[in-house]
Structures are given as C-alpha cells and as structure tokens.
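## tool: complex_structure
## caller: assistant
## args:
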Amino acid sequence: MAILTVQELGMTRQEWCDGTPGAAGLSKPQLNAAMQAVEDILVGAALQSAISNAINTATSPITLSVTEKRRLVAFVLRRKTERDR
Amino acid sequence: MATHEISIGPDGCVPDSTGSVYFQPLDVCTGITNDVFKHIVAVFDDVVDTKLYGRFVVPQNYVGTPVFKFAWTSDNGVNTGNVVLGLAYRTVGGDDTTSLDQATAEESLTVTDAAPGTDNFRLIPTVAAAANFAAGETVQFIISRTPTSGSDTMAARVLLVDMIFQYADA
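## result:
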C-alpha cells in the first residue's frame, strides 16, 4: 500500500543514496521495495492504533483529534529521525 | 570513407524545468575523489523523467551512417542496475523553407545501458539513427533519462560527459 508518489519515492531514494556510497550495492527495485516496506508499517492499522492509544493515555482526560495526533507524531518523528540521517 | 565524431553536448544545452537535470563540475559529483579534472557534466537525477535540449549543425563532409553515442558514468560509485537514455531529434534545412518551431521529433531513439563495472569508468553506448541528415542542416535534439521506466534500475544519478554524433564522410 504505497503512499509515496513516484516523485517522492525517487527523492527519498536519492537522499538515502547520497549518504550511502555505491548505494550499498542495491538496485533501484530493491531500494523501492525496502522503502515501501517501511511505508507499509508506518501506515498500518496496528501501529497507528498503538500510537493513538498511547497518546490518549498520556493526554487523558483530553482526547486529541486525528489531525492533532498526526501533527504531534510528525514533529516527534522529524526530531528523532534527524539524528539518523 | 572515414568515420568522424563531433561533440554535440551537453555544453550549450538547456535543462528542462524539473530541477532534476542540471550542470555541475565533475569534481563536485559524489564519488569523484581526485578532484583534478573539473569540466562540466550534465547530471540527470534518479527522481523524475528529465530532458536536456540542444542543437548542432551537420558537418559539410557528412555522407551517412549517423550514430549517436552517450559518454556517461554513474554518480556515487554505483555499479548496479541499468539506465534508460534517449535522444529525439529533428533536422531543419534549407534557406527560408523550414520552420525551427516543430511540434514533433523526426525520430526518437532509446538505449538501455548497464552501470559501470568499476567506479567512475566511462561508458559509451551507441544508437544508430535513420538516414535523415544532410550536410549543413540544423539538428534540434532532446537528450533524456527515464528513471520511472521499469528498465531503469540504477539507483544513482547519470553524469553525461559527452553527447557524440558519429558519421561517415565520402
């Protein structure tokens, strides 16, 4: 269930390759499959439900809207993932 | 009959508006480490389909056997996968007889070439063209890379060093 557009996929692939000499010997189809596997986990119902429930528990009795939760997760992931780039 | 080659690009060419094809000194490219030779190369990203536009004049000693050759290598030391390169062109001849503002290409050629076996090695795939040329004609052309093609499996930028027109004289 790919959510990245072809262009986004290409940009992501190139960004990863820029810091990986020789692209670790991977071909484009292999890299695309790896990135799409990560996508699938991130948009999967199990992970999204777990994150939503965790936020609900933390903010109780207030319940954030879906949009508010998405923005919260986006900002946390951005800070966290910047260390891994 | 002798064979001749002239460089028709990428010097003097114009990139499309994608932002994914551009010019860069060779030494700036990832994977180039000696940084001694710093000529310009045309860079084709591995993101979206891109085009580079140019033109040349067919030499006066041209007789036939037209061939286009792509002198390229991969960025970042990538040695895996294939690249789909293309060249479309239109010849415009005469004196006040033919428009330079044409809507279609006269011929579209593609070639699929494997990544270099060793980092930064030059590759030179060739593609034969139809006998559409005549001495003195202006040739408008479009060089392309098609990373969205299923046949383009190389996860790296293309560094185009030279676009070559080869032909035979009398």
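## assistant note: Chain A has a mean pLDDT of 92. Chain A touches chain B at residues 6-7, 10-11, 13-14, 17-18, 20-23, 25-29, 31 (CB under 8 Å). Handing back to user.
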